[in-house]
Amino acid sequence: MKQTNAQGLKTAKGIHIRRSVFAYPYVVWMAVFIVAPMLLILYYAFTSDGGFTLENIVQAASWDNLRVLADSVRFAVYTTLLCLLLGFPVAYLLSQMKKTTAALLSVFFIVPMWMNFLLRTYAWKVLLGAFTNMLYTESAVLLGMVYNFLPFMILPIYTTLIKLDKSYLEAAADLGANPTKTFLKVVLPLSMPGIISGITMVFIPSTTTFAISQLLGGGKTMLYGDLIYMKFITEQSWNTGSALSIILLVFVLVSMTFMKKAERKTSDEGGGRLW
Amino acid sequence: MKTWKKIVCLALALALSLSLFACGGGSGKVTLNVLNWGDYIDPELLRQFEDETGISIKYTTMTSNEEMLVKLASADNIYDVCFPSDYLIEKLVSEDLLYPINKANIPNLSNIDPRFLDLSFDPGNTYSVPYMWGTVGILYNTTKVTDPVDSWNILWDEKYAGQILMYDSMRDTIGITLKKLGYDINTRNEADILAAQEALIAQKPLVRAYLTDDIKMELINGSAAMGVVYSGDAVYCISENPYLAYVVPKEGSNVWFDNIIIPKTSNHTAEAEQFINFLCDAKVAAQNSDYIGFSTPNAAALALMDPSYAEDPTYNPPQDVLDRCQIFQDLGDFVKIFSDAWTKVKAA
Predict the structure, then answer these.
(1) Cβ proximity of A198 and A87 under 8 Å
(2) How are beta strands A16-18 and A8-10 bridged, if at all?
(3) Confidence band, pLDDT 50/70/90 cuts, at residue A1
(4) How many Å lie between the alpha carbon of B61 and the closest alpha carbon of chain A?
(5) N or C: which end of chain B has fewer CB within 10 A?
C-alpha cells in the first residue's frame, strides 16, 4: 500500500483496487438473500403450473384473508401505541440522566435483546401460565409483542433526545415558557424524527409477526404471518403463500412511504435526520 | 503476480483435497439421517445402534406429517429413514418418493403382528414397516370433569369453557369433528366439511388453546380439564398424573399407524434397512414402546413387556373400540377443501 486517494488504494505491484470493491460482499449478499428470494416469491405469486396467472392474488385477497390482515394491523397499532406510551418516558428520563447512569440503565433493555426472541417468548409462556390466567389470550399476545418490540421504540427516541441542544430549553424558559409548554412546544416537536423512526421500527415488524401469536395465543389468535406460515408449511401451497406475501409487502411499502414522508416533514423542521 | 498465482494454486489444491477428504469419509463411516416426530424414540437405542454397527445417526424431529412431506419432497432431501403416518405413505407412494424395502434384509419383520401388515395404505408392505399405532381420543381430568365422558360432544359443553384443549392439526381436529357429526372421516363431500367448520368455529370460544405436544404438560399439571390426544401420549400422561383418564368416544375416531420408510433419494438403503431391522427386534421394540408409551405392533415385543400394557385399554384398545375407528386416507386434491376450512377455523 503506497498511496491512497479518494477513489481507492494502490497496492505495491500497482494493482488498483477501487473503494467500491469493498461493497461487493454486501452486494452479493443482497443478491443471494434478498433479491433472489423476492424474485422467487414474485414468480410463485404470479404463476401456476408454469403459466402466468393472477388467480393466486385474487385467491389470496379473499375477504377472510384480508380480515386476518386487518387483525394483524390492529395488533400492530396497539403494539406501537403501547410501545410509544411506555418508551417515550423511558427515553426521556434516560436522556436527562448523566451519560454513565443512562448507559448503565440502558443495559437493562439492551441485554435481553442479545437473547433470541423465541427463548424470551417461551419464558413469558411459562411465567404467564404459572402466575396469571392470561396465557392463550389476545392480551398475552399483545404483551409478548410489546415486550419484544419496546427496545426498538426506546433507542431511536433516546438517540434524538440526547442530541437535543439544551440551549433550546434554556431559551424557552427565558422566554417565559413553563416546563409543560417547553415539553409540548420544544422537546416533542424536536424528537419527532426519533418517534417516527421508532413507530416505523415497531409497526412494520409487528404487522409481520408470527410465532409470538402462536406461542402466547395458543393458536387462537391468527396473525397474517401465521397465515403465510400455514400456507407454506401445512398446505404446501407456495403459490397462495407467495401471493399473500406480496400483498403484505405492498402494504408494508405503502405504510413505509407514509412514514418516510412524515419523517421528512419533521426533519425539515429541524432536529435532524436519523437514517 | 507470481505470489497471486501461488496463492490461487494453493487455495485450489486445498479445496480439492478437502473435497476428496469429504468423499473419502463416506466409505469409512456411514451417517444415517433420521427424521422422526418429537419424543418418539428412546434415545438410548440410537446410541446402542451406533455402538453395535459403527453407523452414526443424525437425528432430526418434526411436528406434523405435512412438515415431513415438505422435507421429503424437497429437491435436496437428505433423509435415509423417516416415520410417516398411514395417509402420508399413500401420498408418498403416489408421488413415487419411496424406496421399495428389501425384506430379506429385515428378518425381524416376522415379529410384527400380522394384523398390522398388508394394510390399505401400503398393500404387501412394499415400502413401509409398522412402527407404532394408536387411536385419537379425549384425555380428561377426573377431578374436574364429573359428567360421564363417552362422546365428542363434551368438547362442546359450555360448562367446560376455557378448559378444553384441541389438537393443532388439521386432519385430526376436522376428523374428530366429522365423527361427532356422524360423517365419514375421509369424506369427499364439501357440505360435511362445511358443517365441521361451523361446529369448530362455534366451539372456538370454549377452547383454551390449540396445541400439539404442549397438551401433555397442560393436562398433567391440571391447567385444563380435557384435551384431544393420541393414545400413546395418554399412556404417558396417565403414568404422570393418575387422575387422568382416556376415552375413545362412542361416535368413533381415527386409528392410525406410523411406519418406517426409506426415501428413494437415500444413498444408504442397506444401512437404513439395518436400522429398521434393529428397531423391529423384540427387545429393542419393547424397550422403545415402554419408554415412549406408544403401542407397538411388534407381537414378540409385547410378549416381553409387562402384562399390564396388554391389559390397558388405552395402550391396547379392544376390538370393539377399533371397530368404530377409521384409518385416514390421502385426500388427494380434496385436501384443499380441508385446509380452507381449517384456515377459517383458525382465523375465526
Answers:
(1) yes
(2) antiparallel
(3) very low
(4) 15
(5) N
Gap between the Cα atoms of A191 and A81, Å rounded:
16
Task: Please list every residue in chain A whose beta carbon sits closer than 8 Å to the beta carbon of residue B330.
Answer: none
Whether B344 sits inside 8 A of A64 (CB atoms) is yes
Q: Where are the domains of chain A?
A: 3-52, 59-268
Q: Do B346 and A13 touch (CB under 8 A)?
A: no
Residue B246 identity: Y
* Close Cβ partners of A146 (under 8 Å, ≥ 6 residues apart): A79, A82, A83, A86
Provide the residue range defining the domain that includes B100.
2-133+257-316
Q: Are residues B236 and B266 in the same domain?
A: no
**DSSP string spanning A190-219?**
HTHHHHHHHHHHHHHHHHT--SHHHHHTTT
CATH code for position B338: 3.40.190.10
Q: Which of B263, B247, B248, B218 is nearest to B98 (CA)?
A: B263
> In chain B, how many domains are there?
2
Are B53 and B129 contained in the same domain? yes
> Which of B137, B135, B122, B55 minimizes the C-alpha distance to B84?
B122
Instruction: Determine what percent of chain A is predicted with pLDDT higher than 90.
Output: 69
Alpha helices in B161-206 (DSSP H): 170-180, 190-203
B88-108 residue pLDDT tens: 999 999 999 999 999 999 999
Q: In chain A, what residues touch B207 (CB-CB under 8 Å)?
A: 220
Chain B residue numbers with beta carbons less than 8 Å from the beta carbon of A234 are: 64, 66, 170, 339, 342
The residue in chain A having the minimum alpha-carbon distance to the alpha carbon of residue B162 is A136
How large is the average pLDDT for residues B131-154?
A: 97
Are both B240 and B207 inside the same structural domain? yes
B229 and B291 inside one domain: no
Is the domain of B202 the same as that of B338?
yes
Contact list in A for residue B64 (CB cut-off 8 A) is: 234
- For residue A123, count other CB atoms closer than 10 A to its CB: 13
Q: Is the ipTM of this complex over 0.90?
A: no
Distance of alpha carbon A101 from alpha carbon A98, whole angstroms: 5
Kindly state whether B204 is in contact with chain A, defined as any CB-CB distance less than 8 angstroms: yes
User: Based on the domain organization, do B306 and B329 belong to the same domain?
Assistant: no
Predicted confidence at residue A30, as pLDDT, reads: 92
Q: Which amino acid would we find at residue B17?
A: S
Tens digit of each residue's pLDDT (9 = 90 or more) over A238-259: 899 999 999 999 999 999 999 8
Strand B31-37 with B325-326, pairing: unpaired
- B129, B262: one domain: yes
Report whether B119 contacts B86 (CB < 8 A).
yes
Q: Are residues B144 and B216 in the same domain?
A: yes
Residue B119 sits at the chain A interface (C-beta within 8 Å): no
Instruction: Give phi and psi for B140, each to the nearest 5.
Output: -135, 160
- Residue (of B174, B165, B306, B327) closest to B244 by Cα position: B165
In CATH, A59-268 is 1.10.3720.10: yes
